[in-house]
Amino acid sequence: MSRRKKGLPVHGWVNLDKPLGLGSTEAVSRVRRLFDAKKAGHAGTLDPLASGILPIALGEATKTVPFLMEAEKVYRFTVAWGVSTASVDREGEVIGRSDVRPSAEAVKAALPAFVGEIDQVPPAFSAIRVDGQRAYDLARAGEAVELQARRVVIHEAAVTDAPDADHVEITVRTGKGVYIRSLARDLARALGAEGHVSALRRERVGPFTLENAVTLDSLGDLVHRGAASEGLLPVATALDDIPDLAVTDQDAFSLRQGRPVVLIPRQVEALKARLREGHRLVSAFQGQTLVALCQLRAGRLDPDRVFHLAPSEAPSRSEPPRGER
């Protein structure tokens, strides 16, 4: 007889402002313990030396993690000139020194070459697997790590501060899979300098921003006061760019049973007008409760991922569903 999984059926997102010195896995564990949640996961690893937005999914929200992995991100980071390290951060072994100190104007002139679709080689100290092992484990063991370049997108990059000759602060808006340490490494090379990331803060992941983030201390206080739900965002928060449709109680029941529902022509046309080219995914809502993620096919909704949420487990969305039936 299998043992029943411990914890409570807590569903929603915690938009954590992760502190320095804490790894993503440990941050997830702490949030899970605070809520005594059965299930938890996160969208996008944040290194211990970085702070900022770490969206943590609890319960049914874990089903939406893949959609948030594709979301745009905003990072603010500082490059310290003069020293390069093996890990391209302040804790790595020094591998190069230079007296070159690029000016803020020189950095501004160099940044456009890193905007758009670019090929980027991940840092050796990364979680990418090489022959079944993490690259950072091989690098720490002193082995040479050769990683293949990956196609990534950087939408914007700008110098936002230059406090002194030794440092420059840069803010970037990126797509999926961009390594900020690789960007700093390549920027330094382009400028004929040595440099590393001395500070890194993630300011946004899709709809999760610093404005609606919570700290571990504030979350602990909410839990202590019996107001833990105030620290939760709806499961559907990660689906903000997916068109939504309000369905009847009968259709909601059918979708939860894995059965498709037929739409009327005007609903189909309205949804098609809101879908991005090549996309067919629609989120179905019963009132304010997320029912399922569905594929729009031949005038019907085919359930793809079904959510088991009671109204009390589904915090209200910021706006009502569109396309009412």
How many domain modules? 3
- Main structural class: alpha+beta
Percent range of helical residues: 10-25%
The helix count comes to 8
Examine the secondary-structure arrangement and name the CATH architecture of the largest domain.
2-Layer Sandwich
Largest sheet: 9 strands, mixed
Polypeptide structure, described:
- The protein is an alpha+beta fold and 325 residues long.
- It folds into three domains: 12-69 and 207-231, Pseudouridine synthase (2-Layer Sandwich), CATH 3.30.2350; 73-205, Pseudouridine synthase; 242-313, Roll (Archaeosine Trna-guanine Transglycosylase, Chain: A, domain 4), CATH 2.30.130.
- It is built from eight helices and 18 strands.
- It has helices at residues 24-35, 65-69, 104-110, 135-140, 180-190, 216-224, 249-256, 265-274; strands at residues 12-18, 40-42, 50-58, 73-81, 83-85, 94-97, 116-120, 129-130, 133-134, 150-164, 167-174, 195-205, 208-209, 244-246, 261-262, 281-286, 289-297, 300-306.
- Strands 1, 2, 3, 4, 7, 10, 11, 12 and 13 form a nine-stranded mixed β-sheet that branches. Strands 14-16-17-18-15 form a five-stranded mixed β-sheet, covered by helices on one side. A two-stranded antiparallel sheet has the order 5-6.
- Helix 1 runs parallel beside helix 6.
- Mean pLDDT is 89; it is low at 316-325.
